[in-house]
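Key result, reporting period 2: structure in, sequence out.
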C-alpha cells in the first residue's frame, strides 16, 4: 500500500504551521525566531566586527561565518552529541552559501559577521528553519541585503511528492524516501541551496522545485510581516 495520506493529515503541498519573530535576543545586533511545525530555530547576529586572527581577514570585503547547532535533546531520533560534528559543520557551510547571494559586505573590509543558529526543538527541516531565521536576523541587524532568503524541504515518499516533510516521513521505512532542501530568493526565484538525499526522476525534481517556490513565497510573507512588526514597534517607541 502506497503512502497516499500524510501522517498529520496535511495536503501534499501544505506546510506545517509557521511562526516568526524578530528582535528576540536583546544583546545581539540582530536576532530572530522561526518555527515551522515542531522545529524551532533561533538566530543571533553579531557584527560587523574586526576579524581575528588577522590572517583570516579579507581587505576587500567582510566575510560571513555561520554556526549551526542542534541541542542534545532537541527532538526526534537519537540524542545529538554536544559540540561540533561533521553534520553541523556541513550545514553551517551550506547556510553561509545560501545567504551570501543576498548580502553586500563590501563596506566592511577586514570584518566578520557572525551568525549563530541554535535549535532547541526539532522535527526535520532544521537547516531550512535555520536559514529562514538567519535571514531575518541579518535584516534585523541592518546588514545590507537585496532580498531575504526563504527555505523549505520538499521530497518524495513512495510515489507522493510532498512539501515540508516531517521526521516521521523522512524516516518512513515501507517505501523509498527522498529529501530535497531548497533555499530561494523570492523576488528573483534564484536558488541558493539545492541538496538531495535519495533518488528522484528529473521531471519529479522539476515539479518539486515548483512546489518549493510556491511554499517559499508563503514563508516570505511571514518573514516580511515579522520584520514590519518589529520596525513599526521601534518607530512607535
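The corresponding designed sequence is given below.
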Amino acid at each position: 500500500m502506497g503512502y497516499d495520506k500524510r501522517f498529520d493529515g496535511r495536503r501534499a503541498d501544505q506546510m506545517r504551521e509557521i511562526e516568526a519573530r524578530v528582535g528576540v535576543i536583546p544583546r545581539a545586533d540582530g536576532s530572530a525566531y522561526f518555527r515551522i511545525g515542531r522545529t524551532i530555530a533561533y538566530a543571533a547576529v553579531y557584527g560587523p566586527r574586526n576579524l581575528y586572527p588577522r590572517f583570516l581577514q579579507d581587505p576587500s570585503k567582510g566575510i560571513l561565518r555561520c554556526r549551526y547547532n542542534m541541542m542534545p535533546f532537541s527532538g526526534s531520533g537519537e540524542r545529538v552529541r554536544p559540540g561540533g560534528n561533521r553534520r553541523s559543520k556541513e550545514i553551517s557551510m551550506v547556510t553561509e552559501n545560501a545567504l551570501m547571494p543576498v548580502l553586500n559586505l563590501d563596506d566592511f573590509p577586514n570584518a566578520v559577521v557572525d551568525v549563530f543558529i541554535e535549535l532547541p526543538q526539532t522535527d526535520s527541516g532544521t537547516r531550512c528553519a535555520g536559514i529562514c531565521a538567519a535571514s531575518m536576523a541579518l535584516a534585523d541587524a541592518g546588514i545590507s541585503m537585496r532580498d531575504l532568503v526563504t527555505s523549505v524541504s520538499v521530497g518524495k515518499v513512495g510515489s507522493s511528492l510532498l512539501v515540508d516533510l516531517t521526521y516521521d516521513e523522512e524516516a518512513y521505512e515501507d517505501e523509498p524516501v527522498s529529501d530535497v532542501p531548497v533555499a530561494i530568493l523570492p523576488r528573483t526565484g534564484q536558488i541558493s541551496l539545492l541538496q538531495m538525499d535519495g533518488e528522484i526522476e528529473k521531471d519529479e525534481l522539476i515539479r518539486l522545485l515548483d512546489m518549493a517556490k510556491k511554499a517559499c513565497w508563503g514563508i516570505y510573507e511571514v518573514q516580511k510581516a515579522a520584520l514590519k512588526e518589529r520596525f513599526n514597534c521601534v518607530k512607535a517607541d
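The domain at 18-236 is CATH 3.30.230.70 (Ribosomal Protein S5; domain 2). The chain has one domain: 18-236. This case is discussed further under Risks and Mitigation.
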